[in-house]
Automatic annotation (TrEMBL):
Belongs to the Maf family. Coiled coil: none annotated. Its main location: cytoplasm. The keyword Hydrolase applies. Keywords: Cytoplasm, Hydrolase, Nucleotide metabolism. It is an enzyme of class 3 (hydrolase). This is Nucleoside triphosphate pyrophosphatase. It comes from Arthrobacter vasquezii.
């Protein structure tokens, strides 16, 4: 039987990562209310938030009829900076305030992963599942105000957890990454390999 892998994410970065890693997949976006999930768990740490939301997204898609018989991977990225959990800034003023503080400093990007194996799922069951968080510490170069304004004006940081990318324009401001760089982009392919192994699937089985 051909293995089907579904990415439960709207993130263009994640599907690009899988495609460039040669991993065949389709995309089904969940409609998870992320604020409701985190509120239901009190005030989880940034690490736990990433895992909780990855799990919620994967389980929501795995419950859909079209997911039956497939492997479903959900992800969520949270940037931990000075004890705060930063998602996407969305607005220029929020990005400006955050990037000014991040300049010359460092923070940790946590990406949660949750894999649901629906191949053995009985009616109403949830299938077997396994998850892991991959974290990487990101060290930033000092940015001057003109660079910050120009970066925000591109729009790139507004829809990225942590208000930066390492593989886009933001790469100009990254001094180093301690950890899996793919975890910063949004999906650690080596973590996916480990989750697939737990489901007795080799990464080579999903190579296209
Ligand atoms: N290309 C790139 N994207 C990044 C980087 N850091 C963060 N991002 C993006 C990837 C994700 O699209 C986004 C993280 O937000 P979420 O984890 O909430 O995922 P998103 O809302 O995009 O989609 P989803 O909730 O999974 O449907 O930030 C980076 O270094 N490079």
């Amino acid at each position: 039987m051909t293995l089907r892998l579904i990415l439960a994410s709207a993130s263009p970065a994640r599907t690009k990562l899988l495609t460039e890693a040669g991993i065949a997949h389709t995309v089904t976006v969940s409609d998870v209310d992320e604020d409701a999930v985190t509120a239901a768990h009190g005030s989880p740490s940034p690490y736990d938030t990433a895992q909780l939301l990855a799990r919620a997204k994967a389980e929501a898609v795995a419950a859909l009829p079209e997911a039956r018989g497939a492997l479903v991977i959900g992800c969520d990225s949270v940037f931990e900076f000075e004890g705060e959990a930063h998602g996407k800034p969305y607005e220029a003023q929020v990005a400006r305030e955050r990037i000014k503080r991040m300049s010359g400093s460092s923070g940790t990007l946590h990406t949660g992963h949750w894999l649901v194996d629906t191949r053995e799922m009985n009616d109403g069951g949830s299938g077997t599942a396994v998850g892991a968080v991959a974290s990487a510490e990101v060290h930033f170069m000092p940015l001057d105000d003109a660079e910050i304004e120009a970066y925000i004006a591109t729009g790139e940081p507004l829809n990225c957890a942590g208000s930066f990318t390492i593989d886009g324009r933001g790469g100009a401001f990254i001094r180093k990454v301690d950890g899996d760089p793919h975890a910063v982009v949004g999906l650690s392919v080596s973590t996916l390999r480990e989750l697939l192994r737990a489901a007795e699937v080799s990464i080579t089985d999903v190579w296209q």
